[in-house]
């Protein structure tokens, strides 16, 4: 391939990437613009990207109309708990499945992937009956259990791939140096799995934070409802929406995921073998 052809191919790749970024960013940019627009601009026949008279009235109205702070606290509790519990359960399971391969582990991995194709409607009735028997309907702990069950298969599948990417020779070298099995797992394997564990926890957190259907069915009282459910209260009975406060509340609801990802993205993209150097 000639240098000119390589430059053209790279330019095409960058152009495709730019188009993809614009496609992803458009809804979020428009959401921010709507959140800061006053009522007259929201009803204008000629919408603009940048508000001509930006205002915070939509944010004030959103907090006045709905208990956003309480709903955000419920969502944060459920999402953090689900992410931590899912990772704690999935990590040792993934290690066993990755290091001790057999037909059973292969079948289990296949079942994990297939289980993600089940629609919510098939699961909600059995889950509702189980939670009712356990007296966990309309409780955050019941919702957390559902989120853990729902995110655990994919979390397990992700961590199996990360464990297999860690060379077994590192563990064998630690064993030759006299390290016990537990010391090897804690000092050698665990640091190398840190990026995968963080990425998996982030996936479980975002899945629980954005989830709507299970929270709508399982949580009945307003005091227990999560943020996605409370956002629907800005919609009227006939489909009319309070667009400004809804956009402001939706913008605030996206911030925790963005901030969390910004804080740990270096950890996620860090080298998988960063901790492989033996001092």
Protein described:
This protein is mostly helical and 279 residues long. It has 12 helices and no strands. It has helices at residues 3-35, 39-42, 57-65, 68-99, 103-115, 120-133, 140-165, 168-176, 181-210, 213-218, 227-231, 243-269. The longest helix has 33 residues, at 3-35. The protein is globular. The two termini are 44 Å apart. The model is unreliable at 271-279 (pLDDT under 50).
Mean pLDDT: 82
| Low-confidence blocks of residues | 271-279
The main β sheet shows up as: none
Distance from N terminus to C terminus (CA atoms, Å) equals 44 Å
* N-to-C SSE string, H for helix and E for strand: HHHHHHHHHHHH
List how many beta strands DSSP finds. Answer: 0
Helix content range of the residues, please?
over 70%
Q: What percent of residues are in strands?
A: under 5%
**Overall body shape:** globular
How many helices in DSSP terms?
12
Q: From the alpha carbons, calculate the radius of gyration and give it in angstroms.
A: 23 Å
Alpha-beta classification: mainly alpha
Pick out its properties.
75% helix, single chain, 279 residues, mainly alpha, 0% strand
């Amino acid at each position: 391939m000639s240098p000119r052809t390589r430059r053209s191919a790279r330019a095409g790749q960058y152009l495709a990437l730019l188009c993809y970024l614009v496609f992803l960013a458009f809804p979020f940019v428009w959401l921010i613009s709507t959140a800061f627009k006053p009522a007259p601009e929201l009803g204008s026949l000629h919408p603009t990207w940048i508000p001509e008279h930006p205002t915070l009235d939509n944010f004030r109205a959103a907090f006045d109309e709905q208990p956003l702070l309480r709903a955000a606290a419920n969502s944060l509790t459920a999402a953090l708990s689900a992410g931590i519990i899912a990772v704690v359960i999935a990590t040792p399971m993934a290690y066993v499945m990755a290091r001790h391969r057999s037909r059973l582990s292969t079948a289990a991995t296949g079942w994990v992937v297939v289980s993600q194709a089940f629609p919510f409607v098939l699961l909600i009735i059995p889950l509702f009956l189980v939670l009712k028997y356990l007296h966990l309907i309309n409780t955050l702990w019941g919702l957390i259990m559902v989120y853990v069950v729902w995110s655990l298969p994919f979390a397990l599948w992700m961590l199996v791939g990360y464990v297999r990417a860690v060379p077994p020779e590192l563990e064998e070298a630690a064993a030759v140096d006299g390290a016990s099995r537990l010391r090897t797992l804690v000092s050698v394997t665990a640091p190398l799995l840190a990026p995968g564990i963080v990425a998996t926890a982030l996936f479980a957190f975002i899945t629980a934070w954005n989830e709507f259907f299970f929270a709508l069915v399982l949580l009945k009282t307003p005091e227990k409802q999560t943020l996605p459910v409370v956002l629907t209260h800005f919609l009227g009975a006939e489909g009319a929406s309070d667009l400004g406060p809804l956009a402001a509340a939706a913008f605030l609801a996206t911030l925790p995921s963005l901030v969390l990802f910004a804080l740990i993205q270096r950890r996620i993209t860090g080298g998988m073998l960063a901790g492989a150097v033996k001092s």
